[in-house]
Amino acid sequence: MRVTAAACVLALASACSLTTDLSNLTGGGDADRGTDGAADANATDGSPPADGSGDAGAAFCAAAPSSVSFCDDFERATGRGPFDVAEAGEAAAVDITSGTRSGGRELRATITGLGEQRVTSASYAERLGRVEKSVRVAFAMRLEAPPSAEAQLVTLTVEKPDGFANAFLFAKGGLTLTEQTFPDNGSGSFVQHQLSAAVDWTAWHRVEIELDVARHELRMWVDGAAAYSGACDAFFGAGSLKLDFGIHFAKGPLPSLGLRLDDVTAVVL
After folding, report:
1. Mind giving me the DSSP string for 77-116?
2. Are 110 and 92 in contact (CB under 8 A)?
3. Nearest 5°: phi and psi at 34?
4. Range of the domain at 173
5. How do residues 225-234 score in pLDDT, each as one tens digit?
6. Residue 2 CB neighbours (<10 A)
7. What's the total number of domains in the chain?
8. What is the CATH number for 19?
9. How far apart are CA 89 and CA 56, in angstroms?
10. b (16+ CB within 10 A) / e for 220-254
11. 45-77 pLDDT, tens per residue?
12. Are 34 and 136 in contact (CB under 8 A)?
């Protein structure tokens, strides 16, 4: 039932441009402040190349600090590895493949030939217990081509006794940082936040997203630079956390969509 609700809301979302114009600058001046005062936007995930262009290889997770709750560098032949489940629906596939950065391996999620009004997913999912204060995920990513239909990419889901809420990258031509709520009683919300600068998402970038459920704040960095910072819906709160890396939800018609991810970390407080 909830997946159907998500599909209905996504179907109403307006298209985004391939790149985000500077005139759409949104958010406040504290985007450089990490969780609990962390000063460095890359402090939670070791020392990857700032722009996501180089693969740190198997040393990436081996060098991750103890503050990291989850890490995957995808340096294996195949399979979901430390993730709880692999989700691949109609016309979709997700697996580990040869790297397109500086060697190594990476996750590739693809959808090919999805029909009209059909929905699907292609992602690795992980449940990380409860989030009481905040969750911060970091990853390298690129799209194989600009998306031609609505798709919900990397997704942070918080499940509560009275419903659930998502923060995710929403793609249709370009990307926005988007939040969506599904309260059990009453209507939910769907809000897209434009990023502060134009980004070519067909190139590799290092992305970080922080969802602060205690202070109701949402932030994003691209290649170490603040891309968004602002308040999120007050419905976000402490609850059970689920992370989806890949294409969490897509709706047809969709001729093709390819997403590559690497060097994933999550810090949960």
Report:
1. SSS-TTSSEEEE-TTEEEEEEE-SSSSSEEEEEEEEEEPT
2. yes
3. -85, -175
4. 2-268
5. 999 999 999 9
6. 11
7. 1
8. 2.60.120.200
9. 30
10. bbbbeebbbbbebbebbbebebbbbbbbbbbbbeb
11. 334 445 555 556 678 899 999 999 999 999 988
12. yes
